[in-house]
Amino acid sequence: MSDDPHILSTVILTAHWLIVIGLSLRVIARRLPVGISLAWLAVIFAVPFAGAAAYLVFGGKRLSAERVMRHVAAQRAVGSVLATLREEPNSASPAAGSTGETLYWQTLGVMGVPALDGNRAILLHDYGSVFDALVEDIDEATDTCQLAFYIWHEGGRADDVAAALERARLRDVRCRVLVDAVGSKEFLEGTRVRALRAAGVEVVGVLPPSFRSRADLRYHRKIVVVDEHVGYAGSQNLVDPRFFKQKSGVGRWVDAMARLEGPAVALLATIFETDWSVETGSAFEPATSWPPAADAGSPDRALVQVVPSGPMPYPDAIRKLVLTAIYSARQTLTLTTPYFVPDDAVLTALCSAAQGGVTVTLIVPARNDSRLVRYAGVASFEDLMATGVRIALFQEGLLHTKSMVVDGTVSLFGSVNLDMRSFWLNFENSLFVYGSEFASRISDLQQEYLTHCVFVDPDDWRGRPAHHRFAEDAARLVGPLL
């Protein structure tokens, strides 16, 4: 009997090391970025059993076999749509030698997504104008309304959108809604969704938690397509910031959206249809017509590439494209993001740009709703400022707009944060817009944000308390996993 505890401890220890060795081999074989691999190895080794469990739940980008098959089937159909769009008269490229040329060709080569000219792109820079335009467009719909959001939160102007969809159903307009099953959990369990479904609106929760797939893969896209004629993309969820997360202590969320008319709307519609097909198992239904191009003299005319990203079908593609955009800067580079947790490659790119004479400005919220993310992000501030990067802390709420303007001529705008979650785990969508007209609107908005910012002083930052430094350095170790 006296040997039983010894036998039990030996079995537990043996099981622990077998699990550690087996999962370590799996981490190494997956050939992830070194920072991510080392972070997972540290977790697996340092936290017996719980570290292994965390890796099994959160460590892979796995999707269920059924979902993978649906993705593959949908991508075959998407391939034919993209091939047709590449042959459209409005398919175009930036001028040879321009700042965006390399980014365009890389996006086309990796994803097959063309840039389409003749779009009318309007920047909506506050939640009120977004909801006003969205409700108006839904009220004018005659055929379809398609909405995809990470979060739908009941209350305020979000209820106005729900009411507009119910009115659209009375006109026999088909209305379909995709929302993330976790991000919109309260909405999917609430009274409003029951009323929408009763009115005939099709509402589907995307990526519900399942043992068959990684638990924290999220559907982070923000897309609206009305009558395959008008489209929206950007950072705003379907939430009224006056009612959303008021107890989080970060103030109101600040967002922006782009409203598009023109050929690029067909690409937004294709993304939505792909996601609908994958989630519901229904057949992929390609757009029946391409929206007409805007007049040649329109001041809002824009050349746009609509870029989807996520674990499938192009893992890591958006990270590489963001790096290309950063390295293409020769004069100015201004970025806004609510969640800034760069890996070594992004950090090096930003520092290299600043050292090469580019004026690099990073605008982030002074407070966000994740303390761990904040600590992991600010851990890189000293390195960035040492090379000349200017860091501005937005004081008037949680700045949620995700934007990048390169040399005043190329804009990246959408749902992608500068963190590993957006680069590796989330299903996202971005607009790559080539031309100074839209870039100037984004730049003006970024300058407006700067009027509500405080720039970080390098000397003051170096003098922060030692316990802050330690918390930041500790969070930085798990930054690749956030």
Task: Walk me through this protein's architecture.
Helix content is 44%, strand content 20%. It has a 16-stranded mixed beta sheet that branches. Strands 8-15 form a two-stranded parallel sheet. Strands 12-18 form a two-stranded parallel ribbon. It is α/β, with parallel strands linked by helices. The termini are far apart. The chain folds into three domains: 55 residues; 234 residues, Endonuclease, Chain A; 165 residues, Endonuclease, Chain A (2-Layer Sandwich).
Helical amount among residues, as a percent range? Answer: 40-55%
- In round numbers, the mean pLDDT is 90
Strand-pairing-aware structural class? alpha/beta
Low-confidence stretches: none
Query: What fraction strand?
Result: 15-25%
CATH topology of the largest domain: the name is: Endonuclease, Chain A
SS element count, helices: 18
What global shape is seen? Answer: globular
How many discrete domains? 3
| Fourth CATH level, the homologous superfamily of the largest domain | Endonuclease Chain A
Q: In CATH's first tier, which class of the largest domain applies?
A: Alpha Beta
In angstroms, what is the radius of gyration?
Answer: 23 Å
Number of strands: 20
Largest β sheet strand count, sense and barrel closure:
16 strands, mixed
